[in-house]
Design goal:
single chain; 374 residues; alpha/beta; de novo design (two linked rop proteins); 3 domains; four-stranded parallel beta sheet; 17 helices; globular
């Protein structure tokens, strides 16, 4: 079964795109009398609701994904960590777990085998940082949700110090198809390095907003113009993959396809594949200030590059908009570099990406707030 999952090429759908087969193999090899599978359903990215769709409309696919992961790794506990703001999702998942129990698919000696698996549903704490896997684990343990230093990685030292696999909802929901149809069948969908399909969330700026499933490798322009029906009003940029994702100018969408490689090669990030549209009339400098403010508010506070850097970035952009102050280009670049290289997790380390995207593609609009032309 592990061989089929690895052959599928399935990569994590939560942001980083890390192959799930490697995680499962690492946890499987770890020696322990207790292992866990954790589903990260703390969907906190603004504009993302594909996880909620799966939780409420395909709960069995998600739960079976945890069972499969447990069988592969030797884990007998599955934890559903669901966003507190999704009460309907929590109730649907609890009912689906009860249905699986009634069918004899959970508990001790499932279907007469020596495989045991139980579920636990936990309501998230309502903090964006809990979407980061180590902060999520700390939250489950009842601790302050702070990011942990890695290594050790969760597959070796995770929940309660035991080997743990953490994956998001969409990733785990794919496992049933792979086990049923084989890894090769899954790998034939999408591209060579980004196999399978991807759920894409389109916001209210589109004429046809909603959730769409597309093959990896689908042109981004097809998603925007054919599926989404274009925009209701002029849009100048698409923020794709949440606050830490790439900020894509609309004219650049014709160069991108929905897969990890295309976005990375163009200095963007596919992430969760949610699309938040930035209106033509909205000042880019105000949008960047909002990103820093968001990071400052949601930071766990453990590392100073994120905790202090996000506040300083917000202050610089605020001052430039409310006075004749001009931001020093080198100072600002150094700030972004420090956050990118020094932050413990992707919150502080990822926010420089959309900011640098804005500076690269909207330099003319932003230059008036800086000492030197961008």
């Amino acid at each position: 079964m592990l061989a089929q999952i690895k052959a599928s090429g399935l990569r994590g759908r939560g942001g980083a795109g890390f192959p799930i087969g490697i995680k499962l193999e690492g946890c499987r090899k770890a020696e322990s009398n207790q292992k866990y599978i954790v589903c990260n359903a703390d969907e906190g990215d603004p504009g993302s609701y594909s996880d909620r769709y799966l939780l409420e409309n395909q709960p069995i696919a998600v739960l079976v994904g945890l069972i499969i992961a447990g069988y592969v790794t030797g884990a007998d506990r599955g934890v559903m960590y669901i966003r507190f703001e999704y009460p309907e999702s929590i109730e649907v998942i609890k009912q689906a777990i009860a249905d699986l129990q009634s069918a004899g698919l959970t508990g001790t000696g499932i279907l007469g085998s020596n495989f045991n698996f139980e579920f636990k549903v936990i309501e998230a704490r309502g903090a964006y940082i809990c979407g980061e896997e180590t902060a999520l684990l700390a939250s489950i343990e009842g601790q302050r949700p702070e990011v942990r230093v890695r290594p050790p990685y969760p597959v070796n030292y995770g929940l309660f110090g035991k080997p743990t696999v953490v994956n998001n909802v969409e990733t785990l929901a794919n496992l049933h198809f792979i086990v049923k149809n084989g890894g090769e069948a899954f790998a034939k969908i999408g591209t060579q390095r980004s196999s399978g399909t991807k759920l894409v969330s389109l916001d209210s700026a589109f004429r046809r907003p909603g959730i769409y499933e597309v093959d990896m490798g689908t042109p981004l322009a097809t998603v925007v113009e054919e599926l989404g029906g274009g925009f209701k009003r002029p849009v100048k940029a698409l923020h794709i993959g949440g606050p830490l994702g790439g900020l894509v100018p609309v004219q650049k969408m014709f160069d991108l396809t929905v897969d990890f490689e295309s976005f990375a090669q163009n200095s963007f990030l596919l992430g969760h594949a949610s699309i938040v549209s930035v209106p033509e009339e909205y000042p880019m400098v105000a949008y960047l200030e909002h990103l820093f403010a968001f990071t400052a508010h949601e930071s766990c506070g453990k590392c100073f590059p994120c905790r202090i850097g996000s506040v300083r970035g917000k202050e610089l952009l605020q001052k430039a908009q409310t006075s004749d102050y001009k931001i020093d280009n080198e100072l600002f670049t150094d700030l972004l570099d420090t956050m990118k290289k020094g932050s413990l997790c992707a919150l502080g380390g990822g926010i420089p990406l959309p900011v640098m995207n804005a500076m690269a593609h909207f330099g003319e609009e932003l230059s008036g707030y800086f000492k030197e032309k961008i």
